[in-house]
Amino acid sequence: MTNVFLYGMLSVLPLIVGAILGSVFHVKEKIIGVISAFGAGAMIAALTFGLMEESFKLGGFDNSILGFVVGGLIFVIGDYFIIKAGGRGHKRYYNAEGSTGRGIVLGAILDGIPESIALGIGLFLNPAVGLLMLVGIFSSNLPEGISSAYDLKKQRKSIKEILITWIVVALVGLAFVILGYTIFSSFSPNVVATLESLAAGAILAMLASTMMPEAFKESGIDSSMATVLGFLLIFILSKVGV
Predict the structure, then answer these.
(1) Which residue of 68, 199, 236, 240 has the lowest C-beta tally within 10 Å?
(2) So where are the chain's domains?
(3) What count of Cα atoms within 13 Å lies in the side-chain half-sphere of residue 97?
(4) What is the pTM of this model?
């Protein structure tokens, strides 16, 4: 259980670090974009070699496909309502002036829940999968924290308010890591397989609709190689048996 708590803390720590950086400093968009692209590549590889592979081993095609598609649909529907609530201010198609603090926070929580559950389940079933997910989540949460904190700062939120907000978001993420390990992983193999692929579908939908478009907008063609390198890192880790 100590390892689960440690992995959970490491997965959400970049949100708080990013919030500090976004609140105090002006981080160049290109740097944020490159980090986002690297994280996206790492996450895609973690889904491929980690979550979906484990899901297939546990539940076969039926559960893997069902969960994957449903997970994507759930994220898309949830994201639609987050946008309506004023979230996604720093994303490609929406300006920060039209965003709201509540919407931004809800968007961050929506992004983080599937990742956190997947990390918890992965740690229970196969620590190697948990490590792959941790690297991907760590890489993607840092730019998320920076961008979202920057948006909240534009709304005249104080540094204290921003940090408290992101500490709460981080605690929610940590809670779902623990839930994934202690509760969701105790279900039948077919249910766990469906949950793993559901999380994978939701995460991939998030990457496609928010993280990757923003990375390209902010860093241009540099995002391409950053994505490749992120994917390559997870591929190497998955094959050397770390």
Answers:
(1) 240
(2) 2-22+29-237
(3) 0
(4) 0.88
